[in-house]
Design goal:
Helix content is 9%, strand content 52%. It contains 2 helices and 10 strands, in the order ααββββββββββ. It has a 10-stranded antiparallel beta barrel with strand order 1-2-3-4-5-6-7-8-9-10. It is globular, with a radius of gyration of 16 Å.
Length: 153
């Protein structure tokens, strides 16, 4: 366990018997490692994800896919601290919000779930070296879709 988690906890919490996963859920730490502009491009398309800084209790984000100069998909996103946890809110195509609660939080990986939603039921974000990656699935790792983006300087 890294020292940052030990020193961030209030003194009344005995962290010697907790796992890093338990501590991160307890702290509801915003995933600041997601902040920035991320892009993946091919000759036919561009995929972008942009996340604000992890300041306060809220991060805002946006995803868009562009094919041959035309928007093909977009969604507005946010991650917010609520009580003792994190909630990921997706607004695909600018429509109504769907919420996913954090079920796993690590130093460079986070998973959000909404078992009642049709698809996706899980949303995963993680760092893969210098890349930001994301995947969505139906809760069973079937029908999974995955993206990896590189940071835009």
């Amino acid at each position: 366990m890294s020292e940052i988690y030990k020193t961030t906890l209030p003194p009344e919490i005995d962290n010697r018997r907790m796992t890093t996963h338990t501590l991160m859920i307890l702290l509801a730490v915003l995933p600041g490692w997601m902040s920035g502009t991320w892009r993946a491009a091919t000759l036919q398309s561009v995929s972008e994800e942009v996340w604000s800084a992890a300041d306060g209790t809220l991060m805002t984000g946006m995803h868009r896919d562009i094919r041959t100069g035309k928007k093909t998909w977009f969604e507005f996103l946010r991650i917010e601290q609520r009580g003792e946890g994190l909630v990921y809110v997706a607004m695909p195509g600018g429509r109504g919000a769907t919420e996913f609660k954090a079920t796993r939080i690590e130093e460079s990986r986070v998973t959000f779930e909404n078992r009642e939603h049709d698809f996706p039921k899980r949303i995963h974000y993680w760092k893969d070296g210098p890349k930001l990656c994301a995947a969505i699935d139906d809760g069973t790792d079937e029908k999974a879709q995955k993206w990896c983006w590189e940071r835009v300087p």
